[in-house]
Design goal:
The protein has 203 residues and is mostly helical. It has one domain. The chain is built from eight helices and no strands. It has helices spanning 2-24, 32-44, 50-91, 95-108, 110-116, 127-132, 137-164, 166-194. Helix 4 packs across helix 5 (110-116). InterPro entries: DedA_domain (IPR051311), VTT_dom (IPR032816).
Protein backbone atom coordinates (compact mmCIF):
# COMPACT_ATOMS: atom_id res chain seq x y z
CA UNK A 1 0.00 0.00 0.00
CA UNK A 2 2.84 2.40 0.84
CA UNK A 3 4.50 1.85 -2.54
CA UNK A 4 1.15 2.12 -4.35
CA UNK A 5 0.27 5.48 -2.80
CA UNK A 6 3.73 6.96 -3.27
CA UNK A 7 3.80 5.79 -6.89
CA UNK A 8 0.42 7.36 -7.53
CA UNK A 9 1.53 10.66 -6.01
CA UNK A 10 4.79 10.49 -7.96
CA UNK A 11 2.91 9.98 -11.25
CA UNK A 12 0.69 13.02 -10.72
CA UNK A 13 3.19 15.24 -8.94
CA UNK A 14 1.92 18.48 -7.44
CA UNK A 15 -1.40 18.14 -9.27
CA UNK A 16 -2.10 14.76 -7.65
CA UNK A 17 -1.22 16.13 -4.22
CA UNK A 18 -3.46 19.17 -4.74
CA UNK A 19 -6.34 16.96 -5.87
CA UNK A 20 -5.96 14.60 -2.90
CA UNK A 21 -5.78 17.47 -0.42
CA UNK A 22 -8.84 19.04 -2.00
CA UNK A 23 -10.76 15.78 -1.69
CA UNK A 24 -9.46 15.33 1.86
CA UNK A 25 -11.41 18.43 2.84
CA UNK A 26 -14.57 17.16 1.17
CA UNK A 27 -14.54 13.37 1.44
CA UNK A 28 -13.71 11.91 4.90
CA UNK A 29 -11.80 8.70 4.00
CA UNK A 30 -8.85 10.61 2.49
CA UNK A 31 -6.56 11.77 5.33
CA UNK A 32 -4.01 14.58 4.91
CA UNK A 33 -2.05 12.84 7.67
CA UNK A 34 -1.25 10.16 5.10
CA UNK A 35 -1.12 12.17 1.86
CA UNK A 36 1.35 14.91 2.80
CA UNK A 37 3.96 12.76 4.58
CA UNK A 38 4.06 10.46 1.56
CA UNK A 39 4.33 13.50 -0.71
CA UNK A 40 7.25 14.70 1.39
CA UNK A 41 8.83 11.26 1.19
CA UNK A 42 8.62 11.33 -2.60
CA UNK A 43 10.08 14.83 -2.73
CA UNK A 44 13.04 13.79 -0.56
CA UNK A 45 13.78 10.96 -2.98
CA UNK A 46 13.84 13.45 -5.86
CA UNK A 47 10.73 11.97 -7.47
CA UNK A 48 8.93 15.32 -7.42
CA UNK A 49 9.85 18.94 -6.78
CA UNK A 50 9.43 19.74 -3.07
CA UNK A 51 8.34 23.37 -3.55
CA UNK A 52 5.67 22.57 -6.13
CA UNK A 53 4.38 19.60 -4.15
CA UNK A 54 4.16 21.68 -0.97
CA UNK A 55 2.36 24.49 -2.80
CA UNK A 56 0.02 21.93 -4.37
CA UNK A 57 -0.84 20.59 -0.93
CA UNK A 58 -1.61 24.06 0.41
CA UNK A 59 -3.66 25.06 -2.65
CA UNK A 60 -5.70 21.86 -2.54
CA UNK A 61 -6.33 22.25 1.18
CA UNK A 62 -7.44 25.88 0.87
CA UNK A 63 -9.64 25.11 -2.16
CA UNK A 64 -11.39 22.34 -0.25
CA UNK A 65 -11.98 24.64 2.71
CA UNK A 66 -13.37 27.31 0.37
CA UNK A 67 -15.99 24.85 -0.94
CA UNK A 68 -17.40 24.48 2.58
CA UNK A 69 -17.20 28.24 3.15
CA UNK A 70 -19.25 28.82 -0.01
CA UNK A 71 -21.71 26.13 0.97
CA UNK A 72 -22.34 27.88 4.28
CA UNK A 73 -22.48 31.35 2.72
CA UNK A 74 -24.87 30.43 -0.08
CA UNK A 75 -27.23 28.09 1.76
CA UNK A 76 -27.65 29.83 5.09
CA UNK A 77 -28.28 28.07 8.37
CA UNK A 78 -31.68 26.47 7.77
CA UNK A 79 -31.04 25.34 4.21
CA UNK A 80 -27.64 23.98 5.25
CA UNK A 81 -29.21 21.94 8.02
CA UNK A 82 -31.77 20.57 5.57
CA UNK A 83 -28.94 19.69 3.16
CA UNK A 84 -27.08 17.89 5.96
CA UNK A 85 -30.25 15.99 6.83
CA UNK A 86 -30.51 14.75 3.24
CA UNK A 87 -26.87 14.21 2.29
CA UNK A 88 -24.82 14.37 5.48
CA UNK A 89 -24.84 10.60 5.86
CA UNK A 90 -22.35 10.22 3.00
CA UNK A 91 -20.01 12.80 4.52
CA UNK A 92 -20.57 11.50 8.07
CA UNK A 93 -22.01 14.85 9.10
CA UNK A 94 -24.98 15.65 11.29
CA UNK A 95 -26.61 18.69 12.82
CA UNK A 96 -24.69 18.26 16.05
CA UNK A 97 -21.36 18.50 14.21
CA UNK A 98 -22.43 21.73 12.51
CA UNK A 99 -23.74 23.19 15.78
CA UNK A 100 -20.42 22.44 17.49
CA UNK A 101 -18.50 24.16 14.71
CA UNK A 102 -20.81 27.19 14.91
CA UNK A 103 -20.36 27.40 18.67
CA UNK A 104 -16.57 27.20 18.37
CA UNK A 105 -16.55 29.91 15.71
CA UNK A 106 -18.81 32.18 17.77
CA UNK A 107 -16.45 31.89 20.72
CA UNK A 108 -13.14 32.26 18.89
CA UNK A 109 -13.90 34.06 15.62
CA UNK A 110 -11.00 34.40 13.17
CA UNK A 111 -8.69 32.45 15.49
CA UNK A 112 -11.01 29.46 15.07
CA UNK A 113 -10.38 29.48 11.32
CA UNK A 114 -6.61 29.74 11.74
CA UNK A 115 -6.14 27.15 14.49
CA UNK A 116 -9.00 24.99 13.21
CA UNK A 117 -6.99 24.22 10.08
CA UNK A 118 -4.51 22.35 12.30
CA UNK A 119 -7.06 20.23 14.19
CA UNK A 120 -8.09 17.02 12.37
CA UNK A 121 -11.68 16.82 13.60
CA UNK A 122 -12.33 20.54 13.09
CA UNK A 123 -10.28 21.32 9.97
CA UNK A 124 -13.08 20.91 7.45
CA UNK A 125 -16.15 21.98 9.41
CA UNK A 126 -14.73 25.28 10.68
CA UNK A 127 -15.15 26.72 7.17
CA UNK A 128 -18.93 26.31 7.37
CA UNK A 129 -19.63 28.80 10.17
CA UNK A 130 -17.20 31.25 8.57
CA UNK A 131 -19.45 31.27 5.53
CA UNK A 132 -22.67 31.25 7.54
CA UNK A 133 -21.55 34.19 9.67
CA UNK A 134 -20.46 36.23 6.66
CA UNK A 135 -16.73 36.40 7.31
CA UNK A 136 -15.21 38.37 4.39
CA UNK A 137 -13.76 36.01 1.80
CA UNK A 138 -10.35 37.69 1.78
CA UNK A 139 -10.05 37.40 5.54
CA UNK A 140 -11.21 33.79 5.48
CA UNK A 141 -8.69 32.86 2.80
CA UNK A 142 -5.87 34.63 4.64
CA UNK A 143 -6.46 32.78 7.93
CA UNK A 144 -7.18 29.50 6.17
CA UNK A 145 -4.02 29.72 4.09
CA UNK A 146 -1.89 30.61 7.10
CA UNK A 147 -3.21 27.66 9.10
CA UNK A 148 -2.93 25.32 6.13
CA UNK A 149 0.70 26.30 5.49
CA UNK A 150 1.60 25.24 9.03
CA UNK A 151 -0.41 22.00 8.96
CA UNK A 152 0.61 20.93 5.46
CA UNK A 153 4.21 22.04 6.05
CA UNK A 154 4.51 19.99 9.23
CA UNK A 155 3.20 16.83 7.60
CA UNK A 156 5.30 17.39 4.49
CA UNK A 157 8.44 17.91 6.59
CA UNK A 158 7.73 14.69 8.53
CA UNK A 159 7.66 12.71 5.30
CA UNK A 160 10.74 14.47 3.99
CA UNK A 161 12.69 13.48 7.10
CA UNK A 162 11.33 9.93 6.88
CA UNK A 163 13.15 9.32 3.59
CA UNK A 164 16.52 9.41 5.31
CA UNK A 165 15.38 6.68 7.72
CA UNK A 166 13.58 4.54 5.16
CA UNK A 167 16.03 1.65 5.39
CA UNK A 168 15.25 1.35 9.09
CA UNK A 169 11.47 1.47 8.81
CA UNK A 170 10.65 -0.10 5.43
CA UNK A 171 9.84 -3.53 6.94
CA UNK A 172 6.95 -2.24 9.02
CA UNK A 173 5.95 0.94 7.17
CA UNK A 174 3.99 -0.79 4.41
CA UNK A 175 1.75 -2.91 6.66
CA UNK A 176 1.17 0.10 8.93
CA UNK A 177 0.14 2.24 5.96
CA UNK A 178 -2.17 -0.51 4.71
CA UNK A 179 -3.70 -0.83 8.16
CA UNK A 180 -4.33 2.90 8.43
CA UNK A 181 -6.06 3.05 5.06
CA UNK A 182 -8.14 -0.02 5.88
CA UNK A 183 -9.16 1.35 9.28
CA UNK A 184 -10.18 4.70 7.78
CA UNK A 185 -12.35 3.00 5.16
CA UNK A 186 -13.96 0.70 7.73
CA UNK A 187 -14.74 3.60 10.06
CA UNK A 188 -16.26 5.54 7.19
CA UNK A 189 -18.42 2.61 6.12
CA UNK A 190 -19.50 2.04 9.72
CA UNK A 191 -20.59 5.65 10.12
CA UNK A 192 -22.43 5.60 6.79
CA UNK A 193 -24.23 2.35 7.58
CA UNK A 194 -25.03 3.58 11.05
CA UNK A 195 -26.81 6.45 9.35
CA UNK A 196 -25.05 9.35 10.99
CA UNK A 197 -26.25 12.55 9.39
CA UNK A 198 -29.82 11.40 8.84
CA UNK A 199 -32.52 13.56 10.29
CA UNK A 200 -33.84 11.97 13.49
CA UNK A 201 -37.45 10.86 13.44
CA UNK A 202 -39.85 12.98 15.42
CA UNK A 203 -42.26 11.67 17.96
Amino acid sequence: MFDFITSWIAAGGAFAVAALMFLENVFPPIPSELVMPLAGYNAARGVSGPVLVFIGGVVGSVAGAWIWYELGRRLGRERLMEWVDRHGRWLTLDRHSIEQALDWFDRHGAAAVFFGRMIPTVRTLISVPAGLQGMPLGRFLAYTTAGSVIWVGGLFAAGYVLEAQYERVQNWLDPVTTGIVGLIVLLYLYRVLKGRGRKPREG
